[in-house]
């Protein structure tokens, strides 16, 4: 049975922290689902982790639909949230509705996530009013990286902290079912968590949040050149993969692969017209 928002609510009510991880493809989603992760985010961080872009801005709705559908095919239990890409919801309510609709109808997501505070309240209201479950996202909002001037911790001043708290309340009031808090001071995240009745899902926002989200590549040691400070590597999958590839390539070069175990043989003699092939083995 797939996780529903009622199950998410139950986790919140029982004070059980909610783990959420990003996944962008069928196999990763299958593994996360089998690990019992209740929420999967098809993040637009896919731009960097899967497509090699500098930031999240180039990802398109078509990209998100395709990868969301793959993630949904890999899951039978997780609640799947799909990120709305940059400029797929900011320009108009009709853009937001149409593109969220595609993520649900074509991608099969259970919910969408979008970034922003007060300016997104009407968008959240319109989506929720049309039956779309919306996860909000405050603090470091990577789609605004050029405006923010980088990927630093947000809301460190009293004014910025008050704005973030007001935005959080307004997004909850507009109907968001959860709020991602990215790179905000732990004390502020704790206050937002206390104030809101919807779950907060933190990333670099301390331990008081109701849940934690991490990027697949950071968590598993697949980020080749850089791991953010807020991430902890639970495995060195990148090293395991590279070493396996090196060993395989060496076996090919040394003619140790394939062996007979990976090989099929003729079972009877065949006549090619110009030549007859004899089975190697009886
Ligand atoms: O795209 C993403 O991976 C995200 C998480 C960092 C929350 O939005």
Care to describe what's here?
The chain is α/β, with parallel strands linked by helices and 282 residues long. The protein has helices at 5-13, 26-34, 46-49, 61-73, 93-105, 121-129, 145-148, 158-174, 186-195, 216-219, 237-253; strands at 18-22, 39-42, 79-83, 111-115, 133-139, 178-182, 200-203, 211-214, 270-271, 276-277. An eight-stranded parallel β-barrel has the order 1-2-3-4-5-6-7-8, surrounded by seven helices. The protein has a two-stranded antiparallel sheet with strand order 9-10. Strand 4 (111-115), helix 6 and strand 5 form a beta-alpha-beta unit. The chain is elongated. The model has no long low-confidence stretch (mean pLDDT 97). It binds 3-methyl-2-oxobutanoic acid. Residues 22, 41, 43-45, 83, 180, 182, 203, 213, 215 line the site of 3-methyl-2-oxobutanoic acid (KIV).
């Amino acid at each position: 049975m797939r996780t529903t928002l009622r199950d998410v609510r139950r986790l919140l009510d029982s004070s059980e922290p909610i783990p959420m991880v990003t996944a962008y493809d069928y196999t990763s989603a299958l593994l996360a689902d089998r690990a019992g992760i209740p929420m999967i985010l098809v993040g637009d961080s896919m731009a960097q982790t899967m497509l090699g872009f500098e930031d999240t801005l180039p990802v398109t709705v078509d990209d998100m639909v395709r990868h969301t559908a793959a993630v949904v095919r890999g899951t039978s239990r997780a609640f799947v949230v799909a990120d709305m890409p940059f400029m797929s919801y900011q320009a108009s309510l009709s853009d937001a509705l149409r593109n969220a609709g595609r993520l649900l109808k074509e991608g099969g997501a259970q919910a969408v996530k979008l970034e922003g505070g007060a300016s997104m309240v009407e968008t959240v209201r319109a989506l929720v009013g049309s039956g779309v479950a919306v996860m909000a996202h405050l603090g470091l909002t990577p789609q605004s990286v050029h405006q923010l001037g980088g990927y630093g911790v947000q809301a460190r001043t009293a004014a910025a902290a008050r704005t973030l708290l007001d935005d959080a309340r307004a997004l909850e009031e507009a109907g968001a079912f959860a709020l991602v808090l990215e790179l905000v001071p732990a004390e502020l995240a704790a206050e937002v968590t206390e104030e809101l009745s919807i779950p907060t899902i933190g990333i670099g926002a301390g331990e008081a949040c109701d849940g934690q989200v991490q990027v697949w590549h950071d968590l598993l040691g697949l980020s080749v050149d850089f791991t953010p400070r807020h991430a902890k590597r639970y495995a060195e999958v990148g090293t395991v993969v590279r070493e396996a590839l090196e060993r395989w390539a060496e076996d090919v070069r040394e003619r140790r692969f394939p062996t007979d175990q990976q090989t099929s043989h003729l079972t009877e003699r065949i006549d090619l017209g110009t030549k007859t092939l004899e089975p190697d083995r009886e």
